[in-house]
Amino acid sequence: MSRAILIAGMASGVGKTTFSSGIVRALRNKGYTVQPFKTGPDYLDPTYLTQAASRITRNLDTFMLPSTNLLELFNQAASQVDICVIEGMSGLYDGKDGLSEEGSTAALAKLLGIPVLAVLDIGKVSRTAGAHALGLKLFDPALNLVGFLLNNAGSPTHARWVQESIEATTNLPVIGWLPSNNAWALPERHLGLVPAGEDLAQLQLETKLEALAEQIVTTVNLEQLDRLIRSPQNTFEISSSKLFPDQTLPARVRLGLAQDAAFGFYYQDSLDLLRAWGAEIVPFSPLFDEHLPADLDGLYIGGGFPEVFARELTANTSMRQSIAEAVSEGLPVYAECGGLMYLCQELIDFDGTHYPMVGVLPNKTIMQSQRVKIWYAEVEAAAQHPFLAPSQRIRGHEFHWSQLEHEFERSQAAYLIPSQNNQPEGWVRGNVIASYIHLHFGSNEKLAPQFVRWLEKS
After folding, report:
1. Residues 190, 257 share a domain
2. Active-site residue list
3. pLDDT tens digit string along 410-441?
4. Same domain, 217 and 154
5. Is the CB of residue 263 less than 8 Å from the CB of residue 342?
6. Residue 426 domain-assigned?
7. Do residues 121 and 39 both lie within one domain?
């Protein structure tokens, strides 16, 4: 088993992705094979970790994934590398609610049995950082917090003052710091970071990552980091696979996957599970391809940024027509969030401009000036759901800035939300399932095989 470290933070925006990406690249440059992971339901930060490691980042979420499933997925990826670097989400102890640790970075660290480094943004603080660090240490003594990383230091002297305060207060080491510097700043927009490779030329991003790695080598003690990295001490062992079939299955369905700058929100483990259960994944681009790939048994249109690329999606009339014709002929289509928006009649952007979309769903989506919803979702399959059993309960998440012109109809709902008086969510229209809910196919061992059987029977 490889060794692992988790890089957490005092809050969102303190520099977790910067430190994680830089450390991953620095370790890779030293000859290690590094597997990056991201805590929680995040599709954006992982793109930078993937670029830094030259290895696809995987998500670990203690709310969406039962413990045994999470450990199985983690162990499978970790067994193939030297070091695992896990980036936390939000604040170290932030999770599903204000009272429990469910879904938090801390809960994941304790489940895996790995050490934690906490990132503090010290741009506007000095000695008081010791109080913040002490709070993180004392809040949960069961957590293996082993040290701190400092971001936005104004000078080496500033970093030294903060280090002295933290180490005297907590008796834990500060193993390094990064100066305030825009040379490796990562671009952002309404959902968070801009996905790596979209607005950054490959060479430009590589230049940023190498500059960041060089700084890490200069101001982070990598030898001390290496001593802190430990082999995971899982709270229990996985004796056999629950998620994957006992033997390799041949591909028996062709699943078209919308994959480009407009649609890229997928969990790698979900795609791996679909492949394992017999789906051949066939990527296509709603932005650039003129029509769907041939001989498909189904479509998966995930989330992304259709609002950013609305003009280009509208302009590609042949692809919109190709999808509409496939739907009319009964092709199974599964769409999440951005995929739902693409299948609607129109998308109205932040400026109020109307863009025709595929038009197979009976609604318009309208971009709002602020976030509409972000929450961990637990839903039950409605009676008409085509591949889940009635009332089968599954977990996912929802995060979007768009709003429907009209609410979902109960008679055509894909899901019901038990915690909200069985409020309807999503649509089932013919062989189309569309919802704002993002699912992780590792959340339930039945999901991937049920999905493949649906495609096979349709």
Report:
1. no
2. 337
3. 899 999 999 989 999 999 999 999 999 999 99
4. yes
5. yes
6. yes
7. yes
